[in-house]
Amino acid sequence: MAICAQGNYWGCGWRCWDAALSGWMIRVGRIAKNCMADAVAAVTGVRLGKRSLKYFDYGKVAATFLNTESGEAVRIVALEESRALADARYPQIENKKERQFRAYGEADDTELFKVERVQVAYGEMDAPGRPRARITCARCVEGVNDGREVKTKGGELLCRACALGGYYKKFEPGTAV
Fold first, then answer.
1. What is the pLDDT of residues 14-62, one digit of tens each?
2. What's the predicted TM-score (pTM) here?
3. Alpha-helical regions (H) of the chain
4. Other beta carbons less than 10 A from residue 175's beta carbon
5. 3-state DSSP call for residue 118?
6. What are the two backbone dihedrals, phi and then psi, of residue 33, each rounded to the nearest 5 degrees?
7. 63-93 burial code (b ≥16 CB/10 A, e <16)
8. What digits encode the pLDDT tens for the residues 131-173?
9. Which residues contact 43 (CB under 8 A, 6 or more apart)?
């Protein structure tokens, strides 16, 4: 089982996993209180380090569960209106997290999530386990695993950060931080 998890949602991760696999007759009842990605990792055993959990930051609260043997996939999206559900059901509870915890624990899956069957582009280089291929970036000389490099028009193999720009910029002494 490989999982692509996107975003955080306090207290909902365990329910997301439960909703995703209820059709596959697998039910899980463990809770991770920090974020959805942590909860998914806790109840499934997938990890970024094992390459069985893929994280994509689209600014959304969603998780996609892929059965790598059958190719079947289910995408779960936390509904925006589920946030208001806690306020409506438990207005007498002052603590927001406590309201959410109580409401999410009692709510029906359809009140919390949109569940849809999807297709996931998944190839050998995406599979869990050790990297299948590795190159060295011609510019920064850092290793790049499993086809994540970019080949320039001149034939140079670069990491995505060097080819397309990264989330970071090399610090130059004497410049403002």
1. 455 555 555 433 333 334 445 667 777 777 778 777 778 888 888 887 8
2. 0.67
3. 13-21, 36-44, 81-89, 96-106, 109-112, 160-164
4. 7
5. strand
6. -85, -5
7. bbbbeeeeeebbbbbbeeebbebbeebbeeb
8. 899 999 999 999 999 999 999 999 999 999 999 999 888 888 8
9. 13, 14, 17, 28, 30, 32
- Token duo for residue 151: 């080949």
How far, rounded to the nearest angstrom, does the alpha carbon of residue 109 sit from its chain's CA centroid? 19
CATH 3.30.1330 is the classification of domain 2-125: yes
What are the extents of the domains in the chain?
2-125, 131-177
Tens-place pLDDT, residues 107-121: 888 888 889 999 998
Q: Are 47 and 41 in contact (CB under 8 A)?
A: yes
